[in-house]
Design brief:
The protein is mainly alpha-helical. 72% of the residues lie in helices and 0% in strands.
């Protein structure tokens, strides 16, 4: 598996957070449960604590909805 550090790691975390939110917002047959599950597991491995998770969840909401909360 590739190892990411610094800005590359930040971008991977942010991209996974955005992708997860986008999948969650897409109901029905286009919501890939296996992709969602794998992405959540990968993000859980990369995120260090709940504060960091909240930061990336907020960044994802801003990117997907244009609203911070």
């Amino acid at each position: 598996m590739a190892e990411f550090t610094g800005r590359d790691l930040h971008l991977v975390k942010k991209a996974l957070s955005i992708a997860l939110l986008a999948i969650e917002r897409r109901p029905g047959p286009f919501q890939s449960a296996s992709d969602q599950s794998d992405m959540k597991a990968l993000l859980d491995d990369l995120i260090e604590n709940d504060t960091e998770l909240a930061h990336y969840a907020r960044a994802a909401r801003i990117a997907v909805t244009g609203e911070p909360d």
